[in-house]
Amino acid sequence: MKAIWNNTTIAQSDSTVVIDGNHYFPLASIHQQFFQASTHTSTCGWKGLANYYTINVDGKENENAAWVYKTPKEAASEIEGYVAFWQGVKVTE
Q1: Which of 4, 8, 25, 88 has a 20 to 30 A CA-CA distance from 59?
Q2: Does domain 2-92 sit in CATH 2.170.150.40?
Q3: Residue 35: its pLDDT value, please?
Q4: pLDDT tens profile 22-80
Q5: In 10 A of CB 46, how many CB atoms?
Q6: C-alpha span between 77 and 72 (Å, rounded)
Q7: Whole-angstrom distance, CA of residue 74 vs CA of residue 93
Q8: pLDDT value of residue 10
Q9: Which residues are bridge partners to 18 per DSSP?
Q10: CA separation (Å) from 65 to 1, 5, 18, 56, 75?
Q11: DSSP structure string for the chain
């Protein structure tokens, strides 16, 4: 699977985990140079606390377009340290 934004592949992996219709990519599969940690967080009742990243490609910014559960609740332990995307990031094979 590939995550693409602004015509650039920002993550690629053959081992994503699909939960709630979102592909979660291992942290090691993201291209770190495009990601900047955000102070934004959200909470899911069964997954726990999500931390966000802003994506920056060629000077264009997509604020809080990626999220990770660094220490998810037990029910979502399979996505610990995995990153998912939204806000126009295309996930494709």
Answers
A1: 25
A2: yes
A3: 98
A4: 999 999 999 999 999 999 999 999 999 999 999 999 999 999 999 999 999 999 999 99
A5: 11
A6: 6
A7: 29
A8: 98
A9: 23
A10: 17, 10, 17, 10, 24
A11: -EEEETTEEEEE-S--EEETTEEEEEGGGB-GGGEEEEEEEEEETTTEEEEEEEEEETTEEEEEEEEEBSS--GGGGGGBTEEEE-TT-EEE-
Given this model, what pLDDT does residue 17 score?
A: 97
Q: Which two tokens stand for residue 21?
A: 């219709």
**Structure tokens of 79?**
């996505």
Chain position carrying tokens 């604020």? 63
Residue 41 tokens read as 């967080």
Residue 1 tokens, joined: 């699977």
SS3 42: strand
CA dihedral 46, 36, 34, 72 (to 10 degrees): -20
Question: How many whole angstroms separate alpha carbon 49 and alpha carbon 82?
Answer: 13
Q: At which residue do the structure tokens 């592949």 appear? A: 9
